[in-house]
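User: Hi! I have a protein structure encoded as tokens and I'd like to know what sequence might fold into it. I'm fairly new to this, so please keep things simple.
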């Protein structure tokens, strides 16, 4: 897409001159003969750079225009043109956030240089903005994590109270004698019991964070992860198939962290399936864990038949904050956190696309706790073989 530049000047010769020059340099140029008209065009086109004369007779001048623009859109770069000797307005222009000023008559080389500097500024500004948004999002997530632990704990109390009140009600004559009422009440009670279980699980889950490494069966964190999502898979019509090999050798793992990886994989698979089947029948998730044939390591992961990995995004999936989901839905942290966890285990993490739009998100961990799989050629060869037969 072309970079858009808006030229605001009351003098037609000046406007046309700059426009011709910039169009020759392949910019998309808009012109306005007053600040007011400039604002209208700004609304429609949101140009990247505005070049405006400061003094325009009648109406708004360039400084006021600058102020208005910077208020609405701080990232828009404004270059002002001042008359010879008008240093005072030049200084106030810079104070008000102009990226530069030029003294008339305009030297075109200087103008082009100013534009390229302004675009550079804009790039940096945008990068800082994204970082700021990402930091705020991270802070919010941390706060939400802290909150949910507390909330889960506090919700337990009222839930228990409600359950026992319902138990009490069910013993009353009105309920023992009226079957319809009684059944409804039992249904209500069941839902509260279910709420209680969810809250308990959440509380347990948030309390598990301390962890630590120990010898253990990788099937444990896998089943625990699945358990947390059982109800969701039911509600979303997702069929879960377990293919966990018996008698897997023990691994040296932090099982709560591995559980987090599994939960992240599962949640992603759920989202992918939802996006394709819309909670209708047909979604399927296969959970695998097996010893590799040609290398002393365990390969585990999840195959789903949801929407394919968005093409062009393959390289970025494991980057922090990379998400293709709507705001509020994805955080873009699941895979990046998972990748840190697996790296801490000296293992590898990745995904492959399979036949029929399915894909396998996997991690591999060596049986030998001191072995780092990441730069091991023999392992990678064995992995490719292994993935080939899926
Ligand atoms: N099973 C999957 N199927 C298709 N795309 C996936 C799958 N898992 C992850 N992705 C892609 O990777 C992106 C990053 O995933 P993740 O780091 O967990 O962040 P989030 O789920 O919050 O978007 C997702 O937005 C999605 O585009
Ligand atoms: Mg995710």
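Assistant: Happy to help. Inverse folding works backwards from shape to sequence: for each of the 390 positions I chose a residue that suits the local structure. Here it is:
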């Amino acid at each position: 897409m072309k970079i858009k530049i808006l030229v605001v000047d009351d003098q037609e010769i000046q406007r046309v001159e700059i426009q011709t020059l910039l169009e020759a340099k392949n910019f998309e140029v808009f012109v306005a003969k007053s600040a007011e008209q400039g604002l209208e065009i700004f609304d429609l086109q949101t140009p990247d750079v505005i070049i405006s004369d400061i003094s325009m007779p009648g109406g708004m001048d360039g400084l006021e225009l600058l102020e208005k623009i910077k208020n609405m859109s701080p990232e828009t770069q404004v270059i002002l043109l001042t008359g010879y000797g008008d240093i005072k307005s030049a200084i106030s222009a810079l104070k008000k956030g102009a990226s530069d000023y030029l003294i008339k008559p305009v030297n075109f080389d200087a103008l082009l240089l100013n534009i390229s500097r302004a675009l550079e500024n804009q790039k940096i500004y945008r990068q800082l903005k994204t970082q700021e948004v990402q930091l705020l999002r991270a802070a919010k997530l941390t706060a939400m994590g802290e909150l949910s632990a507390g909330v889960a704990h506090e919700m337990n109390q009222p839930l228990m109270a409600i359950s026992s009140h319902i138990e009490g009600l069910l013993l009353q004559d009105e309920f023992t004698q009226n079957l319809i009422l009684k059944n409804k009440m039992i249904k209500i009670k069941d839902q509260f019991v279910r709420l209680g279980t969810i809250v308990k699980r959440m509380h347990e889950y948030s309390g598990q964070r301390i962890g630590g490494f120990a010898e253990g069966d990788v099937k444990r964190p896998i089943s625990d992860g699945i358990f947390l999502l059982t109800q969701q898979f039911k509600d979303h019509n997702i069929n879960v198939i377990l293919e966990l090999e018996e008698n897997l050798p023990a691994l040296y793992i932090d099982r709560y962290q591995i559980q987090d990886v599994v939960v992240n994989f599962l949640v992603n698979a759920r989202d992918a399936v939802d996006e394709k089947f819309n909670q209708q029948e047909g979604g399927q998730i296969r959970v695998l864990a097996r010893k590799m044939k040609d290398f002393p390591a365990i390969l585990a992961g999840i195959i789903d038949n949801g929407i394919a990995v968005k093409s062009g995004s393959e390289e970025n999936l494991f980057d922090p904050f990379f998400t293709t989901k709507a705001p509020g839905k994805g955080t873009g942290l699941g895979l990046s956190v998972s990748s840190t966890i697996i790296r801490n285990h000296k293992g590898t993490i990745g995904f492959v696309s399979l036949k029929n739009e399915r894909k396998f998100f996997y991690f591999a961990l060596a049986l030998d706790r001191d072995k780092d799989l990441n730069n091991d050629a023999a392992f990678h060869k064995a992995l490719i073989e292994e993935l080939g037969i899926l």
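A useful reference point when you look it over: The chain has three domains: 4-106, 139-208, 211-388. Feel free to ask if any position seems puzzling.
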